[in-house]
Design brief:
Elements: H1 2-14, H2 38-41, E1 45-47, E2 53-57, E3 64-65, E4 79-81, E5 86-87, E6 103-105, E7 127-129, E8 151-153, E9 175-177, E10 199-201, E11 208-209, E12 223-225, E13 230-231, H3 239-247, E14 253-258, E15 272-276, E16 279-282
Parallel strand pairs: 2-4, 3-5, 4-6, 6-7, 7-8, 8-9, 9-10, 10-12, 11-13, 12-14, 14-15
Antiparallel strand pairs: 1-2, 15-16
InterPro entries: Leu-rich_rpt, LRR_dom_sf
Subcellular location: Membrane
Keywords: Membrane, Repeat, Signal
């Protein structure tokens, strides 16, 4: 539509469009090509039968600058993939207006500030990737409203605060990755109710307290990465988790210790130790 074309024009200008690696159809100056049609000619753009923009896929494309607030007006947008660029703005709160969105990847950029609470309005979202950025602040409790989400990746940011117990409401979540942040507090025992969880990555944070026995209820778990925190463990990791490791044929990796000191925390059933984030070895 003409409105969508105007919004894409602002997007092009705000993200240094003339220097994009691939920009077929968009134009070569600061202004987009007025005679071309986004739904027919523009690289990385797809539309529906009504010529409303549904997909923007511009990863690895040298985007630099800020996300525009007008992007929230692309109300038919279902898929946006802008990972591995140099976007350095905040995430606009208007992103919450994209209620048709089921896939968003903004990872490997330089996004700053906090994750807006309006993210909780993306009730159709299945994949949400904001990892490898510079996000700070805390995790909004509104994340618990994302009932259709299967993958939530926020690792390698500067996020602090505690893990909201509302994440238990993510009934379809299979991957929860919050590693390499500054998250404090305890692991909510409620996470044990996320029955579809396959990957739980909480390594390299500042978590304290005991590891909840309820994590032993995660019978679909393949990876449970807990290394490099400040847990209280006196004798051994909870029996319920060790039983999960011994009876669950899907659990491939259970980590609690760094390789330079595998005796930091007693863990008779751990399978791996780690030298760094996601650099782990068999014990």
């Amino acid at each position: 539509s003409l409105s969508d074309k105007r919004i894409l024009s602002e997007f092009f200008e705000a993200l240094n469009g003339p220097d994009w690696r691939l920009k077929n159809g968009w134009g070569n100056t600061t202004q987009v090509n007025e005679t071309s049609h986004p739904c027919e000619d523009w690289f990385g753009v797809a539309c529906d039968a009504e010529e409303r923009v549904t997909h923007i896929r511009l990863s690895f494309n040298d985007l630099q600058g800020s996300l525009t607030t007008s992007i929230g007006q692309l109300t038919k947008l279902k898929n946006i993939a802008l990972f591995s660029n140099e976007i350095s703005s905040t995430i606009p709160s208007e992103i919450g207006l994209l209620t048709s969105l089921d896939y968003i990847r903004l990872d490997v950029n330089s996004l700053t500030s906090t994750l807006p609470t309006e993210v909780g309005m993306l009730t159709s979202i299945e994949t949400l990737g904001f990892h490898y950025n510079s996000l700070s602040g805390t995790l909004p409790s509104e994340l618990g409203m994302l009932r259709n989400t299967t993958q939530l990746a926020l690792h390698k940011n500067n996020i602090g605060g505690s893990i909201p117990s509302e994440l238990v409401l993510l009934s379809n979540i299979d991957t929860l990755s919050l590693a390499i942040n500054s998250i404090t507090g305890t692991i909510p025992s409620e996470l044990g109710l996320c029955s579809k969880l396959e990957t739980l990555a909480l390594s390299w944070n500042k978590l304290t307290g005991v590891i909840p026995t309820e994590l032993g209820m995660l019978t679909r778990a393949k990876e449970m990465l807990l290394v490099a925190n400040n847990f209280t463990i006196e004798t051994d990791i909870p029996n319920e988790i060790c039983e999960l490791a011994s009876t669950n044929t899907t659990l491939e990796q259970l980590t609690l210790n760094q390789c330079n000191n595998v005796t930091d925390f007693p863990c008779s059933c751990c399978t791996h130790c780690c030298n760094g984030p996601f650099v782990c070895f068999d014990i």
